[in-house]
From TrEMBL:
This is Reverse transcriptase. It comes from the Eukaryota. It comes from Drosophila sucinea. The keyword Nucleotidyltransferase applies. One of its GO terms (molecular function) is RNA-directed DNA polymerase activity.
């Protein structure tokens, strides 16, 4: 199925990673345009283990933790968003963030949650736009990148498996 090819198939794993990184890089550029200092995948050693959120943005002594995910369309996008936020919103991670980045300001946890069709979690996009971490224009570009990444994965899968349009 299309869902298997785009979300689970081992043959398209590298393309999935590239799609995810494309989302992260677009968010990073947007944050930098808004005056944030952005750290990509910092390694935070906490009581709960090693944590590597995709992005940590610092603006005016305020820390914004953003982790991106492209999920299947068989689940609630808002539930996936909430689960990602809860994954990082823990006291040991907050303490390590303050120590690691030497800040005393507020810490907020966000997710950039889309499905493989480029549709955003309503809660995710609302929070990112409300906090001025992303513009609606940025979100549209990211949606296109997700869909384009999916098309690339699908084409690669079809090529790998030997499908061709040649007629007999």
């Amino acid at each position: 199925t299309t869902n298997h090819i785009l979300q689970k198939c081992y043959r398209t794993h590298g393309r999935r990673v590239a799609r995810h990184n494309s989302v992260v890089n677009a968010i990073k550029r947007g944050l930098e345009r808004k005056g944030c200092v952005v750290h990509v995948e910092p390694s935070l050693h906490c009581e709960s283990g090693l944590n590597k959120p995709d992005l940590v943005a610092i603006r005016q002594n305020h820390i914004y933790v953003i982790d991106a995910q492209v999920v299947t369309d068989g689940h609630s996008l808002d539930q996936a968003h909430q689960a990602k936020v809860e994954r990082y919103d823990k006291e040991d991670i907050r303490s390590e963030m303050r120590r690691f980045f030497r800040t005393t300001g507020d810490i907020e946890f966000h997710s950039a949650t889309l499905n493989w069709r480029g549709i955003w979690s309503g809660q995710s996009i609302k929070r990112l736009v409300t906090k001025d971490l992303l513009t609606t224009g940025d979100s549209n570009i990211i949606s296109v990148r997700v869909v384009t990444g999916g098309v690339t994965s699908f084409k690669y899968f079809m090529h790998c498996c030997g499908y061709s349009r040649a007629s007999a």
